[in-house]
Each structure stands twice: as C-alpha cells, then as structure tokens.
C-alpha cells in the first residue's frame, strides 16, 4: 500500500493506526480532516469519487442539517434549559436557527467502492451546543442522509 496519495492538489498520508488515508480539505468553509478507505478502490477513481462526495457535501448543507434537526431539534430546548439554570453561558435563549448556524463538519470518512461508495461526517457546533458530542451523519451511495446519533 502506498504511503501517500494525491486527491486533486491535496496530499493524503496512510495512517497505520486507523488503516485509512488522512488529509485535509475545505468543507463548509473550514479545513476539515478527511479519511479515505480505499481498500476496494481502483486506480484513478479515488480522486474523482472523493471530489464528487466533498462537492456533494458542499452543495447539500441544507439537506444534511435538515436530517440532523429532524432527529435532534430537542437540542434547542436542552441548551435553553441549561442557559436558564446557569449551566451554559449565553446572552439569552437560542433558536433553531442559532443551532443550525453553529453547525460545522468536524470530519468526513469516505469508503471508496466505485458506484457503491458511501460516506459519513461528524457535525460539531460552535458555540458547543452539542456539549462535546458529534452528530454522526450517514450518507449512502444514493445520497440518502440519516443521523446515526450523537457520539463522543
């Protein structure tokens, strides 16, 4: 297995500890860790598929956030309860829009398998409305988005 590979102009380095290539790409305006499992990939398809998936994430922020909010809209109430009792510092109560606007992609994992490539990303929030947790968003090869829960 090669120690390095290029995706566009970005170098990815094989990390033995996780068995994946690791690099950084811009996602939603932030430099983001991207993990690539290329065990089932062939030749030049990695560059094409990774670019396609990262571009899809960029174009579908609203779809991803909607899937998160469908499962986790209660987070707004939890944050507001914590603000009210002094356990979370904020200028006042937050709205659903405040939560949505705080979300960003912490990392992306892409399992490169040709037409069957699926991927996942962890959403984080700043301010930390998820209290140190990450929201695991799963996206299948047909681009169906599902929240796999909070972790961390």
- Tell me the number of structural domains: 1
Q: How are the strands ordered across the major sheet?
A: 1-2-3-4-5-6-7-8
Largest sheet: 8 strands, mixed
Q: Choose one word for the global shape.
A: elongated
Are there runs of 5+ residues with pLDDT below 50, and where? Answer: none
Write the element-wise H/E pattern from the N-terminal end onward. EEEEHHHHEEEE
Helix content: 25-40%
| Total beta strand runs | 8
**Radius of gyration over C-alpha positions, nearest whole angstrom:** 17 Å
Query: How many separate helices?
Result: 4
Kindly report the average pLDDT value. Answer: 96
Can you walk me through this structure?
There is one protein chain. With 152 residues, this protein is an alpha+beta fold. The chain has one domain. The protein is built from four helices and eight strands; from the N terminus they run ββββααααββββ. An eight-stranded mixed β-sheet has the order 1-2-3-4-5-6-7-8. The longest helix is centred in the middle third of the chain and has 15 residues. It is elongated, with a radius of gyration of 17 Å. The model has no long low-confidence stretch (mean pLDDT 96).
Keywords:
152 residues, alpha+beta, eight-stranded mixed beta sheet, 4 helices, 8 strands, elongated
Task: Itemize the secondary structure elements and their pairings.
Layout: E1 4-7, E2 10-15, E3 20-27, E4 30-37, H1 45-59, H2 61-72, H3 74-84, H4 96-102, E5 103-111, E6 118-125, E7 134-139, E8 145-151
Parallel strand pairs: 4-5
Antiparallel strand pairs: 1-2, 2-3, 3-4, 5-6, 6-7, 7-8
């Amino acid at each position: 297995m090669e120690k390095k590979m290029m995706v566009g102009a970005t170098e990815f380095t094989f990390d033995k500890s996780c068995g994946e290539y690791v690099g950084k790409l811009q996602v939603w305006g932030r430099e983001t860790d991207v993990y690539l499992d290329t065990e089932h990939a062939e030749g030049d398809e990695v560059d094409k598929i990774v670019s396609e998936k990262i571009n899809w994430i960029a174009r579908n922020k609203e779809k991803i956030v909607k899937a998160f909010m469908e499962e986790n809209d209660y987070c707004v109430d939890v944050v507001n309860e914590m603000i009210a009792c002094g356990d979370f510092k904020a200028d006042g109560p937050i709205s659903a829009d405040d939560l949505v606007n705080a979300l960003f992609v912490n990392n992306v994992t892409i399992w490169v398998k040709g037409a069957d490539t699926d991927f996942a990303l962890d959403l984080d929030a700043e301010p930390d409305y998820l209290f140190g947790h990450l929201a695991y968003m799963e996206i299948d090869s047909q681009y169906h988005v599902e929240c796999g829960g909070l972790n961390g």
